[in-house]
Write a structure and sequence with these properties.
binds zinc ion; alpha/beta; 27% strand; 7-stranded mixed beta sheet; globular
């Protein structure tokens, strides 16, 4: 499953690493919990207002490839073929990025750059799952604070599963992993944007070509419900307050500038636009 589109002079390609299907889609209540600031009643009322009656969200894994003037780049790499801790039922449904890259006409060695929005397993493990670099020619980029966090002793209190993929990416890329700051053009037409909070170095990526712009938001939100309720956090937002501030800032910018948006976990291909809705927002899917 992949989808091509052009952004100005940039050829882009969203490749699905996978997408859980019923009955394996995760329950909404595992993402939006009372502990993460979403009382059960508030969640029920929000779903009722939505009019869908759904009990789950999609939690897709959409990897965005971009043919930059400097070579083929991918933003986030999926789960790989040997992921940790998701349960065997999910195994056939995910980890397809590399094989679908091949079906789309590229080889793993065509990738010259991997940009990590952050180093959670579902974004980084596709690059390192076998214990060897999946993309042997690629250099990698992640925010300085992201690299520091996962190597720091603070993170050592997190479960090993959560740290494993991040540390493996840091180890395997070695000197080919470039720590970067926000507001920097890391590759031609690709600029980093502050989206910190989900993780300490969580990074959005702005693509711009010939006046057309796309904002790749990583895990700034998991579900369209979070646009109607930007204050809703998830158990995976490491700094809850900061993640809410970043989500609002990114949604306001996307809405006011009418940016095309790529959301990693929304249903394939995860493309849409953000509209103002009262003092919140709503998601409008775009089909390329
Ligand atoms: Zn994620």
């Amino acid at each position: 499953m992949w989808s091509r589109f052009a952004l100005g002079e940039l050829n882009c390609l969203v490749i699905s690493d996978g997408q859980p299907e019923p009955p394996w889609e995760p329950p909404l209540e595992t993402f939006f919990t009372p502990d993460s600031g979403v009382p059960e009643q508030e969640l029920r009322e929000a779903v009722a207002r939505e009019g869908t009656g759904r009990a789950t969200l999609t939690a897709a894994y959409n990897c965005l490839c971009v043919e930059t003037p400097g070579g083929l780049a991918v933003i986030d790499t999926g789960l790989g073929r040997s992921f940790l801790g998701y349960g065997p039922y999910l195994s056939p449904l995910v980890g397809h990025f590399t094989e679908r890259l091949g079906e789309a006409g590229y080889s793993a060695s065509d990738l010259t750059a991997v940009v990590f929005t952050h180093l959670h397993e579902d974004h980084s493990r596709g690059a390192v799952w076998s214990g060897e670099p999946t993309f042997p020619e690629a250099t990698a980029f992640a925010h300085t604070a992201e690299v520091a966090f996962w190597t720091d002793s603070v993170a050592s209190s997190l479960p090993g599963l959560e740290r494993g993929a991040a540390l493996e990416a840091i180890r395997l890329f070695g000197e080919r992993l470039h720590p970067v700051e926000y507001g920097v053009e890391i590759l031609p037409r690709l600029r980093t944007v502050d989206a910190a909070g989900h993780t300490p170095g969580h990074t959005a990526v702005l693509l711009e070509s010939r006046g057309e712009r796309l904002l790749c938001v990583g895990d700034s939100f998991y579900d369209p419900l979070q646009l109607r309720h930007p204050g809703w956090r998830t158990p995976w937002d490491l700094d809850a307050e900061r993640s809410v501030r970043s989500r609002r800032r990114i949604l306001e910018w996307a809405a006011d500038e009418n940016l095309l948006v790529h959301a990693y976990h929304l249903p394939f291909p995860g493309l849409g636009r953000v509209r103002r809705y009262g003092d919140a927002f709503e998601w409008q899917t775009v089909r390329p």
